[in-house]
Design a protein that fits this description.
This is Mycothiol-dependent maleylpyruvate isomerase metal-binding domain-containing protein. By secondary structure, the protein is α+β, with helices and mostly antiparallel strands. It is built from nine helices and four strands. It has two domains: 107 residues, no CATH class; 74 residues, Nonspecific Lipid-transfer Protein, Chain A. Helix content is 51%, strand content 12%. Helix 1 runs parallel beside helix 6 and helix 7 runs parallel beside helix 9. It is globular, with a radius of gyration of 17 Å.
């Protein structure tokens, strides 16, 4: 596990943010406050069975039950400290693959829970490139069913992710963090330019 990786830097930045806000601050995750979000992250790191509840909607109750149990058993600050420690050793080799976008998105979920009007975060060009590259798989999963071609454009580098097909075209332009929010269903909170062209 590389302590300088974007995944690890986002994990620690998010934990710092958790400690700056009230545990009951709303997040972009519907129905969740900060306490629920940090419990989710700890459960995701440490409870593979509950992970099924994330991947399989019919088992969502299991994930929710584990979050509720984590809140009963641990204080907010304790959960933040546990999340900061990182995933179990078995998962650390896959940390970048499974956690980069997870922590990036949830960092924004916390930052924008109370207001969408937040200052833009400055990441390095290398970080931006990594985010765009990692969006390819999730974008195919979430956008290809729309029956239009969607083009995500990094406004700084011009890098593009193109998914889907159909007679229409949707071009979404913005900072890579904003594009990530769009792909993961948080367009309402993202700062983007969206252009639609009918075929």
């Amino acid at each position: 596990m590389d302590p300088q990786s974007l995944a690890q830097r986002e994990r620690h930045a998010l934990c710092d943010q958790f400690l700056e806000v009230d545990p009951h601050l709303p997040t972009l995750c519907e129905g969740w406050v900060a306490y629920d979000l940090v419990a989710h992250l700890w459960v995701r790191d440490t409870d593979p069975l509950a992970g099924l509840g994330i991947a399989v909607p019919a088992l969502g109750w299991l994930h929710d039950a584990r979050i509720a149990r984590a809140r009963r058993r641990h204080t907010y600050d304790d959960l933040v400290a546990r999340v900061r420690q990182g995933p179990p050793a078995l998962l650390r080799p896959a940390d970048r693959m499974i956690n980069t976008l997870e922590y990036l998105i949830h960092h924004e979920d916390l930052r924008r829970g109370a207001t969408y009007d937040v200052p833009e975060r400055e990441l390095t060009a290398a970080d931006d490139a990594e985010i765009v590259a990692r969006l390819v798989g999730p974008a195919r999963l979430t956008l290809r069913s729309r029956r239009v071609r969607t083009v995500l454009v990094d406004e700084r580098s011009g890098r593009q992710v193109v998914v889907g097909s159909g007679p229409g075209l949707v071009t979404v332009t913005g900072h890579p963090i904003e594009l990530a929010l769009y792909v993961f269903g948080r367009a309402r909170a993202a700062h983007l330019r969206v252009e639609r062209t009918t075929g």
